[in-house]
Design brief:
The chain is α+β, with helices and mostly antiparallel strands. Helices cover 40% and strands 23% of the residues.
Length: 181
């Protein structure tokens, strides 16, 4: 009987130790998760850092290519190669353009030579915010280069096809004609 009581007490104590360890591990895990998540300030600082790094990459590209680009207040870089004629495009204007979309390293992603002319309705087509903004600077017949940082393009995800995560995109565009259809 003494042996069996001893055996039961030992099992009871072992079970208590195991339960105590499990509970304390869970508490440690919970408390460490609370402190490992960045707060709003840390996320804002990280975002500012990434935007600044993208800006540096773009400026290096512009310098290497000897481009004469301007930066819009939103962070879009542009150079109008040929002005075009008429009024600048506004919301709901329909345009047709030839284009080439590539990455800063020169990798071609999309182009009208592969996919055909791109038809766009300014402000309504599902295109990158930076491209939409850039096209509003142009007139019919214009040619331009746009460098679009990730936050005005496909951001952290990319387009899940040709454009990778956090990619800076370079667009060479040639506005062919107003599309009155």
């Amino acid at each position: 009987m003494k042996n069996s009581l001893y055996y039961m007490n030992t099992r009871f104590i072992a079970i208590l130790i195991i339960l105590f360890s499990l509970v304390s591990c869970k508490e440690k895990q919970r408390s460490s998760n609370i402190y490992s998540r960045p707060g709003k300030n840390e996320m804002a600082d990280l975002n500012k850092f990434l935007v600044q790094k993208d800006r540096e990459r773009i400026k290096n590209y512009i310098e290497r290519k000897n481009l004469k680009m301007s930066e819009s207040p939103t962070g879009l870089w542009y150079e109008i190669i040929k002005e075009g004629n008429g009024k600048v495009f506004t919301d709901n204007d329909k345009i047709v353009m030839d284009y080439e979309c590539s990455l800063l390293d020169g990798t071609k992603c999309y182009s009208s030579s592969d996919l055909g002319h791109k038809k766009i309705i300014i402000g309504r087509s599902e295109i990158e915010a930076g491209l939409n903004e850039g096209l509003r600077l142009l007139k019919p017949g214009a040619q331009a280069i746009f460098i679009i940082p990730p936050f005005l393009a496909y951001g952290l995800v990319g387009d899940r096809k040709m454009i990778p995560s956090r990619a800076v995109i370079v667009y060479n565009v040639n506005i062919l004609q107003p599309d009155n259809n």
